[in-house]
Design a protein that fits this description.
Length: about 600
């Protein structure tokens, strides 16, 4: 099944309707006419029946499994293979009868093969391109193709570059000893291992062991390679002090592997960066990333170890969860200062439930405590619902209790605030009669004249400098007493009654009390202040009206330790600079 403008096709069925093995991946390269069956690293013990394409050369990649012997030529599809990679398996021997008839290239590297039959060596020398590095066998002295190669390697340190060049020309198909990676596909690729110590740009040449050079444009400071067998395309930009991912070349087929470790990357590019969306494996260890965003949509491998990432946002976490369910996503996350907080409990659950998809799960630690993240319980970073509701309930009860206490102790609190000049906007009252002459009219009998001195001292000479009115100083002789009382009440913001036994028995005292009561009955603020002296035991001497007032209203007790503070607070709350100025000894003028 080939899509328009696509370099490869998805394989469905081959000859005789055989499908691709369930655990493998099959692709058909439409331009190279190559059919690749990728069964690498699947933990398989044997080569399954294989499909055969209608046209094209079939290749089987079976490296990294548990294969102990090759199948017989009767296995469906096996005998038609032209390229076979069974490296990194557990093969012990190899026979001609096990090789596909049309085989052109064989990779048996890194197995347990200790001997090769002479006929097999002769057959492979004539017909097959062989990669056998990593096994235990040595060539026999009469096996000329292998012994020449082996003897040349033993004396390699004594060879000149011209001798090496001539040797490779005789045995290689295409080789260029230049500053660019080699374009090569040899009969004996293992020889490259020895060249690592003899030629310049060893890093580039060593990569040619498994990869061939990419013919397109490659970013500066990077190496671009293509694996001939697995069709993997690699861009290696590691260790170049790069601060951003450059535009990447787009291969003809397959995803891109980007090696970007040991750089100075802080932010990932967006999908509009050329070639970035095609990245399938992303290596970003040892950079300066603080967040992970704009990941390629087809990502299957991500290494972000040793960066500065503390949190992963919900969008990225959803991508991880989705990819882990639909593909074999592999993550490496250690070495970052992860935040182990209640806000990041989703990430905590993702890591603890990650299983094999997180390759370093036992090394991921919390940035603040250093504890292993998989050993961190959600209950230790998030309080339980019970604790939350208990805390909320206790807080609410404390708030209600505080409000009740403030209401209950409102008056003492306001008095204290007013006394100490704290929160005056709450403690002070706005006065409605700011234009009146006096702050208070002091009502008392002539028998209690000795009590006046302390009131004058405390109120007129104190910090507030109140202006008092009392008959000894402010009434004119010859004016009727009822008229004087009425005018004093009218010109004063407060009326202070000094209620003693003498006052209760005084006719003029009771009159002043009644006039003051009637004058203030319609006021919106409390103007009448009754100071009750300890000697008064009851109000029997008062008439019913005045007695009712004393029973139903509050008054100040003179023996109260906080008497003066309460009295001062009951006085007008008017600033000194706004006070109407009167002469020190101005008396009341009657019309």
């Amino acid at each position: 099944m080939c899509k328009e403008n696509s370099f490869y096709c998805l394989f469905t069925r081959g000859v005789h309707g055989r499908r691709c093995p369930e655990v493998c991946e099959c692709r058909y390269m439409r331009y190279e006419r190559e059919f690749t069956i990728d069964c690498s690293e699947r933990n398989l013990n044997e080569i399954p029946p294989l499909p055969r394409p209608i046209a094209g050369s079939p290749t089987l990649n079976f490296r990294g499994n548990n294969l102990r012997h090759l199948p017989s030529q009767s296995t469906p599809g096996y005998n038609h293979l032209m390229r076979l990679d069974v490296s990194d398996n557990k093969l012990h021997n190899l026979e001609i009868s096990q090789l596909p008839v049309h085989l052109e290239h064989l990779n048996i590297g890194f197995n347990n093969i200790s001997t090769l039959d002479k006929k097999l060596v002769d057959y492979m020398a004539k017909n097959i391109s062989l990669n056998s590095f990593g096994n235990l066998f040595f060539p026999y002295c009469d096996e000329k193709p292998s012994s020449d190669y082996y003897n040349f390697i033993l004396t390699f340190q004594e060879r000149s570059h011209s001798q090496i060049h001539n040797f490779l020309i005789e045995r290689g198909r295409n080789m260029h000893l230049t500053d660019d990676p080699w374009h090569c596909f040899w009969k004996m690729t293992t020889f490259l291992l020895i060249l690592r110590g003899r030629v310049n740009h060893a890093r580039k040449y060593a990569a040619a062991l498994e990869f061939s050079h990419f013919d397109g444009e490659c970013p500066d400071d990077c190496i671009c390679l293509r694996n001939y067998y697995s069709m993997e395309f690699i861009v290696d930009c590691s260790g170049e002090d790069l601060s951003e991912i450059p535009p990447l070349p787009i291969p003809m087929y397959g995803p891109t592997t980007l090696l970007f470790q040991n750089n100075k990357l802080r932010v990932l590019p967006n999908d509009s960066r050329l070639g970035y969306a095609n990245v399938g494996r992303l290596f970003l260890a040892n950079n300066r990333l603080t967040e992970i965003d704009n990941l390629p949509r087809n990502l299957s491998y991500l290494d972000i170890r040793n960066n500065r990432i503390a949190v992963i946002n919900r969008k990225t976490l959803d991508i991880f969860e989705k990819r882990s369910k639909s593909s074999d996503l592999k993550l490496f996350l250690s070495g970052n200062p992860w935040a182990c907080t209640c806000e990041e409990k989703d990430f905590l659950g993702f890591v603890k439930g990650g299983g094999p998809r997180i390759g370093d799960v036992t090394n991921i630690t919390c940035g603040d405590t250093g504890n292993l993240l998989i050993e961190t319980d959600e209950s230790s970073v998030c309080p339980s619902g019970f604790v939350h509701y208990v805390t909320l309930t206790v807080s609410f009860m404390l708030m209600i209790l505080t409000i009740n206490l403030m209401i209950y102790f409102k008056q003492p609190l306001l008095i204290w605030f007013y006394e100490h000049g704290v929160c005056l906007s709450l403690a002070a009252r706005r006065e409605l009669d700011e234009r009146k002459k006096f702050d208070a009219f002091l009502s008392f009998t002539h028998k209690d004249e000795d009590l006046i001195e302390e009131f004058v001292e405390r109120l007129e000479n104190g910090p507030q400098k109140f202006q008092l009115c009392f008959y000894l100083r402010d009434w004119l002789l010859g004016v009727s007493i009822p008229e004087c009382i009425s005018q004093s009440v009218k010109d004063s913001r407060r009326i202070i009654i000094l209620m003693t036994n003498h006052f209760l028995k005084s006719t003029w005292g009771r009159l002043e009390f009644r006039l003051a009561l009637h004058a203030t009955s319609q006021d919106r603020c409390k103007r009448l202040i009754v100071v009750l002296y300890p000697e008064v035991e009851n109000f029997d001497d008062l008439d019913s009206e005045l007695r009712t007032y004393m029973v139903l209203n509050t008054y100040l007790k003179r023996d109260d330790p906080n008497f003066w503070n309460k009295l001062i607070y009951s006085m007008p709350h008017i600033k000194v600079q706004h006070r109407v100025k009167w002469t020190d000894h101005e008396v009341i003028q009657f019309s």
